[in-house]
Design a protein that fits this description.
mainly alpha; globular; Growth Hormone, Chain: A; 16 helices; 83% helix; 415 residues
Length: 415
């Protein structure tokens, strides 16, 4: 038993390291990309937000396929392919000479961008159900730790060496994850598991069965609405900071300020998932924690909407990080408990696509909403997180009605 626990812990630590390095690279470029597109390619806000939409549209189409492919062919090969796609995409952006190449790079990164989904599926493979939420919380903590380092590094690199360098550095970080995965990670699905996943009748997400799985549908609605609100934030945050929080500042100052404020998200998320989430899991069910997370995100966007100085923007990011740390891991754990084990990767991929649909629609309109008033995307996002409370309350009430406790699986039945 101790030997088995040691193997599992080593695998989990390896995944956490891979997620951390991947997110350092990714978070270097996300706050810089809108400013890079604006300053180098003279793109306006509407086109910049469509650049973000292109990534999530590609990921929306590819998500279920990537997750299902990892169920059938193994987590390791799919993880390696998706990581390699990220390396190429970041290099394309760094060396881009045209808007068309920028869009092509974002589409490529979206199509192969299943690294985090496959990593999460890997974690659900190796961890017992009673520890799944906690382990997914550690994965999100690594995600948050990457956001501590990445935005600050990206902001410093952009302010001192120009906007192209963060993309090249991010490509290097993604390449490191390829090497780590290849040299240190073991396949989590046996040959028998993969064969069963290809042939089992349970290993199919049919629309009729999906719609009949009430807790799954409710969880997917939570994912869609919460991601819609987040999409409004990520598409306009750098532009809002430039117009409102850092009015009149130059590119270097805005880049550094945005990077440091987003670093607060990483710090807050890491703290939440290392300390707050484990404590919450001892006292509350997964659905109740999801409710707390939605409330915190709503409050954070209200604070951002009324912010006029960097200090209030920083406070809003800290509250947003708390909400993210409480909302996401229990929601992902709930999703994996609503389906058969053969569909863990597929349902996480489906959830990724649903979240991406929220980002696609939100980023597509974010530029227009921002043009009406810089704070309007934040007010709209806050309203959406209030709407998230409705399906989240349904999941909580359904769980109580069926006498579910932390660690029990959710039955795929109607109430």
């Amino acid at each position: 038993m101790n030997l088995r626990r040691e193997i599992v812990d080593r695998r989990l630590l390896t995944i956490l390291l891979i997620v951390f390095v991947q997110m350092v690279g990714t978070s270097m470029v996300h706050p810089i990309l809108p400013l890079y597109a604006q300053s180098v390619f003279a793109m306006d806000a509407q086109v910049i937000t469509l650049l973000i939409t292109a990534f999530f549209a590609a990921q929306f189409l590819a998500g279920p396929f990537i997750g299902r492919l990892s169920d059938q062919r193994g987590r390791l090969p799919v993880l390696l392919i998706s990581q390699a796609g990220t390396v190429v995409a970041f290099l394309m952006i760094g060396f881009s000479q045209s808007v068309a190449v920028l869009f092509l790079a974002r589409v490529l990164d979206g199509v192969t961008g299943g690294n985090i989904v496959v990593a999460q599926a890997y974690v659900t493979d190796i961890m017992p159900e009673r520890r799944r939420t906690e382990a997914l919380g550690y994965t999100m903590a690594a995600f948050g730790l990457g956001f501590i380092v990445g935005p600050a590094v990206g902001g410093i690199l952009a302010s001192r060496f120009g906007p192209q360098l963060p993309f090249l550095a991010a490509a290097g970080a993604a390449l490191i994850t390829v090497v780590l995965t290849w040299l240190t990670l073991e396949e989590s699905l046996s040959a028998d598991d993969r064969a069963r996943n290809r042939s089992s009748e349970l290993a199919r997400l049919r629309p009729r069965e999906l719609l009949g799985n009430v807790p799954l549908v409710a969880a997917l609605i939570v994912s869609f609405l919460s991601r819609f609100g987040m999409g409004l934030l990520i598409a306009t945050f750098a532009l809002f900071a430039e117009d409102v929080l850092f009015t009149g500042a130059d590119f270097a100052t805005v880049s550094l300020g945005v990077g440091l404020m987003l670093m607060v998200v990483g710090v807050g998320q890491f703290f939440t998932q290392i300390f707050v989430l484990p404590a919450a899991l001892k006292r509350c069910s997964d659905p109740l924690i999801v409710l707390f997370g939605a409330v915190a995100r709503a409050v954070s966007l209200i604070v951002l909407a009324i912010a006029t100085e960097p200090i209030m923007g920083t406070l809003s990011m800290a509250i947003f990080a708390l909400g993210s740390g409480l909302l996401l891991p229990p929601l992902q754990s709930l999703l994996t408990k609503t389906v058969a084990p053969e569909l863990r990767g597929a349902v996480l991929g489906l959830n990724q696509s649903v979240m991406n649909l929220g980002v696609i629609t939100s980023t597509a309109v974010a530029g227009t909403v921002f043009a009406l008033h810089p704070a309007l995307p934040n007010w709209l996002g806050a309203m959406l997180y209030c709407l998230v409370l409705l399906p989240a309350l349904f999941i909580w009430a359904w769980a109580r009605r069926n006498s579910l406790r932390q660690g029990d699986g959710l039955m795929a039945t109607t109430p």
